[in-house]
Write a structure and sequence with these properties.
Elements lengths: L1 H16 L6 E6 L5 H17 L2 E6 L3 H10 L4 E5 H9 L12 E17 L14 E5 L5 H12 L8 E5 L2 H9 L6 E4 L3 H9 L4 E3 L8 H8 L4 E5 L13 E13 L4 H13 L1 H7 L21 H10 L6
């Protein structure tokens, strides 16, 4: 027993003396096949190649599982949209009553864009025409899309009470209800597989509605969903459903967050590497073509990690106010 105890102690000492670079930093994300997992995998790949630090991605069923693990320090990083970990930090909405105060912001990457779609032959021409119309909603298995819809409606000067909600467990089922003619519109992620399927199966196809150009649209969108904003999308062969040129949709960024106790130098290296690594990121995941390193810092209710702040100040993109 004494020999075993000594062996364990020696093993612990060896472990503690191992260079920091040998430690593995795990990034929590949604399941494989999700955009968050793909973004995390691309970042991990570039970090390993450029810093010598070891990173891996751990897939989970949803953010409600892995965000608290980052807060507890059981995971070093996490990937989600900017709103989910803001909700977690404050203990509101999806994380009501369970604040995760150890979370810290690291970076914002590329935007996920969404909007309401209607059939091309639909008499619905503007956002205002959605009043009283049937649209999917609730999304018990993907609650963030309910918030995204609300942000789009808010930007358009509407509210969920202005439409008739047809419950659907997730947005994919909602789009299928739209395809079957059971709803007048559906909330469709930009260039998504289900959106392209709907375009092929609906006679005459579908088109996005624009939120319009109200001067307070971004403020209203962000009030409904933290970090959400409007974006103008140009029509083209790689812009499924964009008929009006441009069309104003809702965007929310894929974001990286961490635990407050992750070493400052690690977070610093992560930020500096991603800022300079866009070409390598694009090779790993094409969506990073939409990534603008100068916009890695965005307004967030979650404090930034000191390592990130140090990096952004050196890069000259940290907002002084």
């Amino acid at each position: 027993m004494n020999i075993r105890t000594v062996a364990v102690a020696i093993g612990a000492i060896i472990g503690l003396s191992t260079p920091a670079a040998a430690q593995t930093y795990t990034i929590g994300a949604n399941p494989q096949g999700s955009m968050f997992y793909a973004a995390a995998a691309a970042i991990a790949k570039v970090e390993v190649e450029k810093t010598g630090l070891q990173f891996r991605v751990a897939p989970y069923s949803g953010s409600s599982t892995y965000v608290p693990l980052v807060d507890k320090g059981e995971l070093a990083f996490g990937m989600s949209n900017g709103a989910e970990y803001a909700f977690a930090y404050s203990g509101t909405e999806l994380f009501k009553g369970h604040p995760n105060k150890n979370l810290r912001s690291v970076m914002f990457t590329f935007a996920l864009t969404n909007g309401f779609a209607v059939r091309n032959d639909s008499p619905i021409k503007t956002a205002a025409d959605l009043k009283g119309k049937k649209v999917p909603g609730v999304y018990s298995s993907g609650r963030i899309f309910a918030y995204l819809q609300d942000a789009w409606l808010a930007a358009a000067g509407l509210s969920p009470k202005d439409v008739t909600i047809v419950p659907a467990p997730n947005f994919v089922v909602g789009v299928k209800a739209f395809m079957d003619g059971r709803t007048d519109a559906a909330y469709v992620p930009f260039n998504s597989g289900i959106g392209k399927e709907a375009m092929a199966k609906i006679p005459g196809g579908w088109r996005y509605l624009s939120t319009g150009g109200a001067p307070d649209a971004d403020e209203k969108a962000a009030a409904a969903l933290p970090t959400a904003r409007t974006v103008k999308i140009k029509s083209g062969k790689n812009a499924t459903g964009v008929a009006d040129n441009p069309t104003t949709l809702i965007a929310i960024d894929v974001a990286m967050f961490t635990n407050a106790n992750v070493p400052e130098d690690v977070v610093y290296k992560v930020v500096k590497t991603i800022y300079a690594g866009k070409p390598e990121l694009i090779k790993a995941l094409g969506a990073f073509a939409r990534f603008d390193p100068k916009h890695m810092v965005r307004k967030s209710s979650v404090p930034y990690h000191p390592g990130a702040i140090k990096a952004y100040k050196e890069l000259g993109i940290w907002p002084e106010k």
